[in-house]
């Protein structure tokens, strides 16, 4: 008795379709496994980048961005200008009562300006200081950052120098004016798009 050729053909087609679907399903499973491994790996890398202070800020709901660690192993954080003053007060109360230095730099021609603060917390002795680097980025068109003079008085001349060289306005600084260049000087000498004048006026030192 001969088999129905149409029935045999349909069964073969169904088997092929099933095999293709099974192969697609297995590939999809492999993709999900790889995705899960990649997510776990990235989570591990992010956790490694997050330092002690960043974890503490996250725990207390304080907005910031972890930038990892610098070449000396010092934790580096980015704070928004609008959040900087309140977080500075919190850091001072937390124990970062010593400001080692403040500086500023031009990130790129036509780009953002950065104000950088190096803070130290001495809890377990002077030979075991806990340091952190804070970066606050400001728009080039209107670079305004809250002054932390009333938190760390030692920032006085340093914020003035950053203003003098890069034109960053530190709001609520008690005497924000040029400190190196004459008051009549036009422009901000350490900006990457600064064009030096062709001549300088030599003033008497007396």
Automatic annotation (TrEMBL):
Residues 78-196 form the NADH:ubiquinone oxidoreductase 30kDa subunit domain. Its main location: mitochondrion. PROSITE patterns: COMPLEX1_30K. Keywords: Chloroplast, Membrane, NAD, NADP, Plastid, Plastoquinone, Quinone, Thylakoid, Translocase, Transport. It is a peripheral membrane protein. GO terms for cellular component: mitochondrial inner membrane. InterPro entries: NADH_DH_suC, NADH_quin_OxRdtase_su_C/D-like, NADH_UbQ_OxRdtase_30kDa_su, NADH_UbQ_OxRdtase_CS. PANTHER family: NADH DEHYDROGENASE [UBIQUINONE] IRON-SULFUR PROTEIN 3, MITOCHONDRIAL, NADH DEHYDROGENASE UBIQUINONE IRON-SULFUR PROTEIN 3. Belongs to the complex I 30 kDa subunit family. Core subunit of the mitochondrial membrane respiratory chain NADH dehydrogenase (Complex I) that is believed to belong to the minimal assembly required for catalysis. Complex I functions in the transfer of electrons from NADH to the respiratory chain. The immediate electron acceptor for the enzyme is believed to be ubiquinone. This is NADH dehydrogenase [ubiquinone] iron-sulfur protein 3.
């Amino acid at each position: 008795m001969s088999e129905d050729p149409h029935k045999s053909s349909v069964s073969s087609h169904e088997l092929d379709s099933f095999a293709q679907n099974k192969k697609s399903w297995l590939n999809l499973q492999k993709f999900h496994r790889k995705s899960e491994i990649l997510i776990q790996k990235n989570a591990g890398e992010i956790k490694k980048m997050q330092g002690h202070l960043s974890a503490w800020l996250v725990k207390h709901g304080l907005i910031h961005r972890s930038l990892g660690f610098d070449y000396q192993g010092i934790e580096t954080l980015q704070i928004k200008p609008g959040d900087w003053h309140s977080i500075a007060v919190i850091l001072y109360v937390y124990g970062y009562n010593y400001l080692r230095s403040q500086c500023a730099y031009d990130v790129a021609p036509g780009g953002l300006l950065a104000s950088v603060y190096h803070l130290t917390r001495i809890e377990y002795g002077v030979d075991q200081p806990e340091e952190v680097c804070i970066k606050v980025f400001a728009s080039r068109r209107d670079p305004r950052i809250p002054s932390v003079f009333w938190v760390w008085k030692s920032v006085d001349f340093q914020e003035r120098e950053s203003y003098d060289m890069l034109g960053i306005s530190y709001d609520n600084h008690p005497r924000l004016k040029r400190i190196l260049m004459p008051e009549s000087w036009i422009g901000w000498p350490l900006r990457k798009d600064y064009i030096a004048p062709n001549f300088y006026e030599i003033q008497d030192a007396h």
